[in-house]
Amino acid sequence: MNPVAVMRAARGVRDELDSLMGGASGELRDRLDPLLAEAGSRPPGQLADAVIMLVAEYGPAWERLTALLSLERGITAEQVLPLLSQGPGAAPQEGGAGPTPPSWGAAPPRNGTDPSGWGPDDSPPTASHTPDWMLPDGGGQERPAPASEQAPPIPPQTPAPPPTPTPSPAPADPPAAPPPAEDRGPSVLDRLTGAFRRRRKEPPATAPGPEWAGIPLIEAPAEAVAGWGAEATIGVAPGQGRNDTAIPREPIDLDIQIVAEGFDAPGGWRVRLRADEASPYPRAVVNLVALAQEEPEAARQIQVTYTVRGQVIGFGLRAVTVHGSPGSLGGHEALEPVSGTRIRPALMGEPADVTAIVVHGDRPGRLWWTYQSPHFVTPDRAERCDLGTRTSEFGRHLTGRGRLSEDLGREVGARVPWGFWDLLNAVAGRVAPRRPTVLILSQEPQVPWELAVLEQPYDPSLPPYLNCQTVTGRWPLGGRHPELPPPVNARADRVAVVYGEARAHPLVTEYGATQVSPALGDVLGVLGQGPDIVHFTDGGSASEALGYELPGAPFVFLEEPGDAQAFLIAGASGVVAPLWPADGGLAPEFYRRCFAGEPPAEVLRSMRAQDPDSAGAYRFHGHPALTLRRTAPPTG
C-alpha cells in the first residue's frame, strides 16, 4: 500500500471526524493533526505506519480510512486490511483482521502520474468522457490528465539565499516511473488527487453573527527566486476599522483553495482553518516553491478562494515577482494590500451542487479551474485551460456568430477541463431525478461556458447544452464587487421598465411597473429610487447607465446585448442578458413564472430547452437558486 495514499486518506478522515465520531472527535483530531503536519519532514513509510496505528484505535475512523483506501485501489474494504501489512504491489487477499504494523517500500508506479495523481499530458479535453468509476464494470476510456506548471514538483536549488527568501525542502515523494504503454491508466480517483470522496450527511452550517466578517489574508514576500522556497501566510484578517475581537456565533470551518501558477505546494493546495472563539481570525503557513522559468523575471499571482461546505464566500489575490536568479532581488517595493472580496459567512445560502472557479493564469488565454461541491470533497489541484488566444478574442469569436449551434457548443466544451465533467457527472447521479445546479465564478466574462455541449446528455430529450441540461448561473470574480456569495433572494415588488414608445409596456399593465423614457436623466432618476427590478428594452439606455451605483440591489433584464458584469459590480442581484441580438418576446412568460416562485435560472433553462434558437441567446448572471419575491399581486 502506497504511504502517499494512506496519508491522503487520513486527511479525508480528519475532514470528516465530526460526522464520524460526533463529540468524541476532538481526541483523535488532537492526536492526528500533529502527525499530518509532519508530512515532508519524516520518512513517509514511518509516518503512514504511525497514522494507521493511531486511527486503528478508533472504530468509525478506521472504517472510514479503509473505505477511502478501497475506493482508491478499486477493491473492497476487507481486502485493504491485508495490504496494510504487506509491501507495495501485493495482491488483494481474502479475509484479514485488524491492522498490523506495515512494512513500507517504494511507491508502486502510477501510470506516469506524480504522487498527487496528475499525469504528464495537458491536451484539451472534450465533454464525452465518462469517468471509469461511474461505469457498472469499472471500466472507461483512458483520457489524458492535464499537466500544469503547478503539477510536477521541482526540488528547490541550493544557492545561498539572501536574508528574505529561504529555500524550502523538496517534496518528500518523487514522481513514480511511467507505466507500460498498454496500461489503461489510473482510475479517476487516482488522477484527481483522491478525486471525489462522498461527503457524509452533515448538519446545515450555522451562520455566524453579522458582526463577524473578514478580508483575505495573504502574506508573502514581494519577490521570490526560481527554485527557492517561500512561505506564504494564508488566512482571514479582520479588515480595516473592524474589531479583531469579534467572534462567530458558531465555529466555522473554512476551506481555503490556493492557485499559484509557477509554484509548487509540496504540502497541498488547500488549507482548512477553523474560526471560533479561540481563534476568530485564523491563519496558516503554506510552503511554496517557485518553479524554474525561462524568463529572467515573471509576474505571478497567489489566488485564494474561501469556501464553507461547498459555498464560496470570499476571494483574494496577491502579486509576486519571481526572478530567475537571486542577483535580481531587491528591485521591487512592498506590495499593495491584498485585493478581493470580503469574507461573509453570515450571508450563506444554499450552495450550488457544483461551483466552478475560473481564474486567470499568468499568460493571455490561460485559465485555471478549481471546483467545490457540498456533495463531494473535490481535488485540491487546479486544472489548466489554454484557449490559444486572449479570452476576449475567443469570446467574440464564439458570440460573433450570432446564433447557437452544437458546433459552437463543442468548441466551448473542448476547453472545459476534465475535472469539471467528472464532478458534474458524479453530482448528477447523486441528486437525480432533479437537475443539478451549477454556478460558474469567473474572472473572465467573455467565454460562454454555459453553452458547452454534453456529448452524453443527462436528458436526451433536451438540447445538449450545459445550460439546458443543468440549472446554471455565473458570477464575476476578482474585485471588491460584486461580493460573495451571490444572493439567493431578491425583492420584486417595485418594477421599472425603460421603454421609449408612447403606449404602455406590458409590464405596466400586468404588474404596475413604472415606465420611463430612455433619456439618461430619466433612467438615472428611476435608478436612484431603488427599484427591485429594472427592465431595459433599449440597449443604448442600458449602456449609458453603466458606472452608476444601483441602490437596493435590483434585478436587471436587458433585451439587447450589454455589459452584464458592470451591472453586477454596480450592485445588481442578478442580470439576464442576450449574448447576441435575440427576440425579446420571452419577457412576459419569464416574469409570470418568476413571480410565481420559480428561480430565474430554471425559468430560462426550460425556455431554452423549448426554443433554443431564440431563448438560447439569453445568459443568466446570478445564483442558480436566486428567487424573486413578490408580494404585490398582478394588476392586469
UniProtKB/TrEMBL annotation:
Organism placement in taxonomy: Bacteria, Bacillati, Actinomycetota, Actinomycetes, Streptosporangiales
Source species: Streptosporangium oxazolinicum
Skewed-composition ranges (Low complexity): 112-126
Spans annotated as Disordered: 85-188
Entry protein name: Uncharacterized protein
Biased composition (Pro residues): 152-180
